[in-house]
Amino acid sequence: MKLIRITVVALFALTGCDNATPPAQHHAVQDVGVVTLQSQPLSVFSTLTGRTSASLSAEVRPQVGGIIQKRLFTEGDTVKAGQALYQIDPSSYRAAFDEADASLKQAQSLVESDCQKARRYALLVKDNGVSQQDADDAKSTCAQDRASVSAKQAALESARINLNWTTITSPISGRIGISSVTPGALVTAEQTTALATVRGLDTMYVDLTRSSADLLRLRKQALASNDNTLSVSLILEDGSIYSETGKLALIEVAVDEATGSVTLRAIFPNPHQQLLPGMFVRARVNEGVMENAILAPQQGITRDSKGNATALVVNAHNKVEQRSVETGDTYGDKWLVLKGLQSGDKLIVEGTDKVTAGSEAKAVEVQNNGGKA
After folding, report:
1. Domains of the chain and CATH, by start
2. Residue ranges of the Multidrug resistance protein MdtA-like alpha-helical hairpin domain (predicted)?
3. pLDDT tens for the chain, residues 1 to 373
């Protein structure tokens, strides 16, 4: 009986061990590196792309037809307004001028004799020395001669203008480009093809595209600063900074209905003619000072497949939250955050792959260089 009793107790003990509840498992709280965001004053700028264009541009065209005798400039040189550029064969125009001049002199001589006769007849008619009809005819002839002189003077002036136009001059001061004609070419008055183009390079334009909403914000900032212009700096194609500062002219513009964008024009001095028309540049528009700007390290901002920016933060209950954010331009290694984050938020910059929204995490402050605080 003792043997049976011991066996039952042993079996009961084994059965009790099999039914025992296992101890609860506790998930370890993940350490994540965070940066506590702080608002700060920030000089805000936006970077836009654009191309340069000359502030003055004039196409050179002939105003009379003829054969080009000479080209009087070197392509690519700087020319002055009124400087001779081409010479058209003037022989036919000089002949027309000489003919008009001779015709005028002939008309003037007739005026002198006929009007003198009219004055003499006006005296004689009082003494019945000539008939009234003869006096009236002499007076009429004098008036016709004077009208003829006026017409001949106009014809001479027209001939003089045409003769002067055989020397084609520059309409503006600037740098002249490639000539489309050579000596011996036949040109016609006001032809559609320009002989050359002169561009004024002392002042340059940069045309920039911006959304209409951004334009309204820029206007408000300009009004708030009591200034109708905003300063602009240029980054050239080789990455260098252009030495001169320009101004963004907030002029009347039309909104492109298809894109909702507008074209703004920045004006730059170009004393050394470093800027040339057609250059691709990046313009940094100084938009003023944002008093409470939030700058977030770039490693704390991620983007989904659609380009939407998100961030993970640790809240006051040590829980991870996912925020949708809107970013502006970059400043060094940081994004300017326009929406979604605020001062005091603990932005996760290390260990984002270890946590998800809703999980518990321990926030460990890190420095901007990635080291522990």
Report:
1. 30-42+291-365 (2.40.420.20), 47-55+200-289 (2.40.30.170)
2. 98-166
3. 444 444 444 444 445 445 555 554 555 788 999 999 999 998 888 888 999 999 999 999 999 999 999 999 999 999 999 999 999 999 999 999 999 999 999 988 888 888 888 888 788 878 787 888 888 888 898 888 889 889 999 999 999 999 999 999 999 999 999 999 999 999 999 899 999 999 999 999 999 887 777 777 666 655 555 555 688 999 999 999 999 999 987 665 677 777 778 888 899 999 999 999 999 999 998 877 888 899 999 999 999 888 899 999 999 999 999 999 999 888 889 999 989 999 999 999 999 888 999 999 999 999 765 455 5
SS3 label, residue 153:
helix
